[in-house]
Amino acid sequence: MIENAVPVHGLRVNRSSLQKLIIVGIMLILVIALSLLSREFLTFSNFSNVTRQIAIVIITGSAVTLLMISGNIDLSVGSVVAMTGVLVAIFSSRLGIPLWISVILASLFGGVTGSINGFLVTKLKIPSVIATLGTMYVARGLAYVFCDGKTVNLGLPDNFRWLGGGFVGPVPIPLLLTVVIACVFIFVQMKTLLGKYAYAIGGNKVTALLSGINVNLVTFLLFILSGILAGFSGTILASRMGVGMPTVGIGFEFDVIVAILLGGTSLSGGVGTVWGMIVGAFIVGLLGNGLNLLNVFTFYQSILKGIVLVVAVVLDITLKEKLE
Amino acid sequence: METLLETRNLSKRYPGVHALKEVSFEIERNTVHCIVGENGAGKSTLIKILTGAIPRSSGSIVFKGRDYQPRSTNDAIGAGISFIYQELNVIEQFTVEENLNLGMEKSWFGIIRKDRSSVSKFEDILAKLEPGISLSQKLYKLSVVHRQIVEIARALAVNAELIIMDEPTASLSDEEVKRLFEIIRRLKGENVTIIYISHRLDEIFKIGDYVSVLRDGEMIATKKLADIAGKSELIQLMLGKVVATRYVPNRVDESVKVFQVQGLSTDKLRSISFDLYKGEILGFYGLVGSGKTEIARAIYGIDKFRQGKIVIDGVEIRPKIPKHAIRRGLAMVPEERRQEGIFGILPIKDNIPIMNTKKIARFGISSAKKERAVSIEYIDKLSIAAKGIMQEVATLSGGNQQKVVIGKCLNAEPRILIMDEPTRGIDVGAKEEIHAIIRGLAKGGNSIIVLSSELPEIVNLCDRIVLLLEGRIKKILKNGEGIDTEEIMHVVTGIGEKVR
Q: B22 to chain A nearest CA, in Å?
């Protein structure tokens, strides 16, 4: 018995389309403002520059978005990026393993970290913030241990920079990878049972269990995905820099989480989209890039980023309340 | 003799539910005044109005000779009415003194200042109630009854003249109950009046001076307990005349046992055994704490059980998580709709199909079209009033939320449906609709287990009735014209054999 939809104030808006409108609006305002302020901003080379910078945020964020929709969080991704960056460099140089196998192996190490997170959260019932805070420190430590605290830059194969710095035609490879992975995860989020279960678990964990969802298994899988993609991101970053360094990726977890939150995912779960996270990543990336072009000192950039995050979320909440 | 509190024509209406109907009664000063009634009789509504938690719809209350209109629980406490919560409302990590002082700390620009006078006041109060408790003890080290005494002390510290206790003995041992009663008796001498709510009728006869009986939101009687002949009279007042007017026997096929439970034991259950036949509606009835929900949870793979066997179609199952039980043909409509039944923030289309993804997905990829079809199928079948499949379930009315939960379970196509409190907190119309759905299911050859704390629901629906008391099955009755609701009440309240 579906009642006739009653238009609200003559205009029917549902919550998720409103969310999209708001966040795209913020991005457009940002693009217009920056292109008016700087001539270099709206060029292809600058765009490809920005996407290379935010590529790993989107790649990692794709999996972490699903994890956060399920009501969990992963703080270890920044350390995993450093650890797998060091590992891919060691594998392909000292151990002489072919690059693509090294990339897979290193990504799997990320997956192992993810499975440890999953184990801690599902079996030992530790809140994900605490569990992944722990693995964040452990993975960072391992990154230093594996390379003895020294940057790995000797004996790297010639093709080492290909993954992070190469091009297919005019398109940077990281951009290509980002598009492929983002599309896969948009599909997973919208069309698959894994995506549906993530929403269900984040929406109400008890109901999910009583409805026959294997909550532990799904949560475990989402942590592994998050670890693998963070691991893969680490290899891309190492390749872009041309070295394996244990100090990279500090604060990366927050770049990812900020993009996800800007994209409308709720910290308590049940709400959010991969698509929104991508727009969120662009907002952060474009802002940083534009401010660089305008020669704004990095100290101020950090202040502005913080303000943008809070303003965006406040805007989101107040506009929604007004329109509903 | 002096009246402390009086209500006149007190009413409370919710949309679709008339929870309290023109209730008028008086409470005499320095007495223990018990309030009894079945679940849903209106006890908690009455209490919530007295403590300022909810506003009344109409009527008046006179407290200490003055018109009383609390707008919050703080108003009520200020006026001298304190409430002892069923789930104790203390901070376990704090000391007794800190708990007694909570919210009333004296401070000097935010720095807590020790106040000699209040400390000695607390000491006096505790000395009177229970000298065994010292102010410096942490709450988590105290027994349940001692924690309750701390709560009573807190009420006395704010000069409460009327203390309301809701099922205070629910988690106390016999010894502790005795201790609590001693204290209650002492309170009467200290110019404190008690409203005492309990399902345990024995206690009411032991501790009460007066008893008021509520039924279906109406005040049936207020009597001196001394004038009541015994529990049977009280039970009769509580229940009124329950008749199974709507009961229609189902075509039960007693040759087919679809489901058997044998010797199921957990911490709360003692060797539960029963059979369920094809096409049967089997009811479980018992008071709060009788173990109804625990049986459902153990069968459904939520709680582990120590001993026992669960058999479906002759095959034993051991579900570790509900998923396993669902796969074998069970489904459960849980007791707590909001916390366990629905995904409130998700739309209907993500609620109804979720228990049977085979219908909507292939190789893990789900089809929006099929989701839509399944959702609309059950919206139509169960007459769910909704704006559309995208409406968030939390925004539906209680009855429609419950129908979503039922739709979700039916979509799993279970052969055995467990329904825990299928109509709790929903209006009369939706209740009837849900009962019709349950009967329809039985007619279709399904077997249904209904666990309910509402006797009319049980006797109007079920073919057999399992009576529970303190985690044990006391009796299994066959329903029919001659069903004796008085006997049922005697069994579930533990009076044992019927006394005439």
A: 35
